[in-house]
Amino acid sequence: MRLPFSLMQEESRPSVLVVDDVSANLELVEAVFLRAGYTVHMALGANPAIDIFNSYSIDIAILDVMMPGINGFELCKKLKSLTDKFFFPVILLTALNDKKSRITGIECGADDFISKPFDALELLTKVKSLLKLKELHEELDHSENIIFSLIVAMEANDYYTKGHSTRVGDLAKEFGSFLGFPEKELEILKKAGILHDIGKIGFSENILRKPASLTEEEKKIVRKHPLIGESICRPLLSMRSVLPAIRSHHERWDGNGYPDMLKGDDIPLMARILAILDSYDAMASIRPYRDKRTVDYVLSVMKKEQYDGQWDPELTGLFLQMVSSAAIAGEGLA
Ligand SMILES: [Fe+2]
């Protein structure tokens, strides 16, 4: 049997998009990458580059800066906006060596620079290192997506809890925005909301869907889920920011919660927020033993119990304010 010459098929080779307004320059860069086993796409200017980008799977772009019409800075910005949900590396290839151009390049999102005339080895080394970084980003995204999918799968078979974690995640983002948190922290809050009950993943359905009250032994098992959730997410660096929220979302303001019996402000802020939203969604959802409750009814219960020790009373007040103003404006909550 004849073996293939290379295990690396055409579609699995890294593909590079090279953009320049001078075809001789394109050919120089092309030669370097073809020799190194890359798939090369070339574009004489920004518009054909965007067409190629939209038609092929491109791993990295190398852009000349000085081009007529849309220059390399603007094209870099455009490519970055088209790829804002994942990491797409861009190198600017420029004769401009001054500080101001590099600052403009960084502001436009460029990941690295190469000066003209370029050194082939330096260019290849920078491309390889950025592709490695891209690979790491993708692995991280996959790991996160697997964990998010586990949550959806866990809730999917249960009519009563279906969508609970996603709703708490959306609500967390909305409440965070109401409280004036910056965008980056809203994403952390959303992630924490989605993941707060991940620790229930290994529990038997007999416990999770039991229509009657849990026995003391079953309660002990269920109370382990914040710690189990924390240990599931701990190995992932990108989950570090949500670990305190997962661990402490069942703590109570009066210190009678679990697992650490933290009290008041000792409970991490994100966990105090989730405790309110978790209760709100659970109360508003349909259950085997009762129908869905109206928002007004749930709000009246929360208002009555605002100072009873379960939740941070100030945050609860702000949450009630947000829900009431959304109701007055005729807007639904997440
Ligand atoms: Fe929980």
Structural class: alpha/beta
What is the C-alpha radius of gyration, as a whole number of Å?
A: 26 Å
Shape: elongated
Spatial order of strands in the largest sheet = 2-1-3-4-5
Reading the helices and strands in chain order gives: EHEHEHEHEHHHHHHHHHH
Structure annotation, total helices: 14
Written account of the structure:
The protein is of the alpha/beta class. The protein contains 14 helices and five strands. A five-stranded parallel β-sheet has the order 2-1-3-4-5, sandwiched between helices. The radius of gyration is 26 Å and the shape is elongated. The mean pLDDT is 88.
Please describe the topology of this protein.
Layout: E1 15-19, H1 23-35, E2 39-43, H2 46-55, E3 60-64, H3 72-82, E4 90-94, H4 99-107, E5 112-115, H5 120-156, H6 164-178, H7 183-195, H8 205-208, H9 216-222, H10 225-233, H11 243-248, H12 269-284, H13 295-304, H14 313-328
Parallel strand pairs: 1-2, 1-3, 3-4, 4-5
Bound molecules: fe (ii) ion.
Kindly list the characteristics that best describe this protein.
334 residues, alpha/beta, 14 helices, 53% helix
Brief characterization of the structure:
This protein is of the alpha/beta class.
